[in-house]
């Protein structure tokens, strides 16, 4: 089904029959389940059933709209980089930007090419090198175990759910095969850009990437970004309004690697993808949403997940660029 087929006239902040829209998108995409390529460079992820599709939308008013495999936990992978960046900004403030840039990379998430030209300072906090630099910042003053515990508790606090945990098999699988990440981290350490030993920093990085969450939990954890820094469900102020706006800006420009322009063009929302097939997207002032479908496109972003968000943004008129 073409996205245009799903268009309707209701494009205000309040969306009529959002559950109906979510159901319709799920059913429109069901015939395509299994499309795309499941990430297999992390052996544990290669076992995931490609025929999964989950959608969860949580409105800033607390309304929850879900379809499909929205309550099944999956590996959030790079989506966790939004949470570690938020933590690092809380600890180090603007000093974070001395260690990592804020520009789109235009290259793959695990590319090493720019790192040499830019002397070990990664382009942005969402490519692997940038997130490794952020893990180094989160480690400051902690053992790796403490830093991992702090990240897990932070995500539990954001989602208001103490059940959220790391999948140790995924963390172990990545530790055993993360040759490129070791190369990136060693390279940065060689430039004097990491304060802690490479195995400590990567221990933190691999574990936060191995967080397992459902679409519903993920959508709740992103709600503070949709509501000017404050989670309206818990009443907790997580970050300032300005910081929420800035994290959203980074998600929009860098959240899908060298597919960020295409995602902005098609969906028009700040979003962050992971190779587990999840995407967290934020409609500021309206809702936080998460989708999951393990088959990836050529940029390593969920194929059906991107399509589901494209349909959702179109039907709701939620694109930040206008309805
Ligand atoms: O380091 C890695 O390669 C993975 N733990 C995370 C990569 C990822 O999710 C890229 N996203 N599309």
Give the helix/strand layout.
Layout: H1 18-29, E1 54-59, E2 64-68, E3 74-75, H2 80-92, H3 113-117, H4 128-139, H5 144-159, E4 165-166, H6 168-177, H7 179-190, H8 198-209, E5 211-213, H9 215-221, H10 223-226, H11 241-254, H12 260-266, E6 271-273, E7 278-283, E8 287-292, H13 303-316
Antiparallel strand pairs: 1-2, 1-8, 3-5, 4-5, 6-7, 7-8
Helix pairs in contact: 1-13, 2-4, 4-7, 4-8, 5-8, 5-9, 6-8, 7-8
Protein name: Glutaminase
GO molecular function: glutaminase activity
InterPro entries: Beta-lactam/transpept-like (IPR012338), Glutaminase (IPR015868)
Which key features would you list for this structure?
323 residues; alpha+beta; five-stranded antiparallel β-sheet; three-stranded antiparallel β-sheet; 13 helices; 8 strands; globular; glutaminase activity; Beta-lactam/transpept-like; acetylation; Glutaminase
């Amino acid at each position: 089904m073409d996205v245009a087929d799903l268009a309707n006239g209701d494009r205000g902040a309040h969306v009529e029959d959002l559950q109906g829209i979510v159901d319709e998108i799920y059913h429109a995409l069901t015939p395509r389940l299994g499309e795309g390529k499941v990430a297999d460079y992390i052996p544990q992820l290669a076992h995931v059933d490609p025929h999964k599709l989950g959608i969860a939308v949580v409105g800033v008013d607390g309304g929850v709209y879900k379809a499909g495999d929205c309550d099944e936990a999956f590996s959030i992978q790079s989506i966790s980089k939004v949470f570690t960046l938020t933590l690092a900004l809380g600890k180090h403030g603007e000093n974070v930007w001395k260690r990592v840039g804020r520009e789109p990379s235009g290259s793959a998430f695990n590319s090493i090419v720019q790192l040499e030209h830019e002397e070990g300072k990664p382009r942005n906090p969402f490519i692997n090198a940038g997130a490794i630099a952020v893990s180094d910042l989160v480690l400051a003053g902690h053992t790796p175990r403490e830093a991992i515990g702090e990240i897990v508790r932070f995500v539990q606090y954001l989602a208001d759910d103490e059940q959220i945990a790391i999948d140790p098999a995924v963390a172990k699988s990545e530790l055993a095969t993360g040759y490129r990440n070791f190369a990136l981290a060693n390279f940065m350490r060689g430039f004097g850009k990491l304060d802690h030993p490479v195995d400590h920093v990567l221990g933190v990085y691999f574990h936060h990437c191995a967080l397992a969450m459902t679409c519903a939990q993920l959508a709740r954890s992103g709600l503070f970004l949709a509501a000017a820094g404050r989670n309206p469900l818990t009443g907790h102020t997580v970050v300032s309004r300005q910081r929420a706006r800035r994290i959203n800006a980074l998600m929009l420009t860098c959240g899908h690697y060298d597919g960020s322009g295409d995602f902005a063009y098609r969906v028009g929302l700040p979003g962050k993808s992971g190779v587990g097939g999840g995407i967290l997207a934020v409609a500021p002032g309206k809702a936080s949403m998460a989708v999951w479908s393990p088959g990836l496109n050529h940029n390593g972003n969920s194929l059906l997940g991107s399509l589901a968000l494209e349909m959702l943004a179109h039907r709701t008129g939620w694109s930040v660029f206008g309805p």
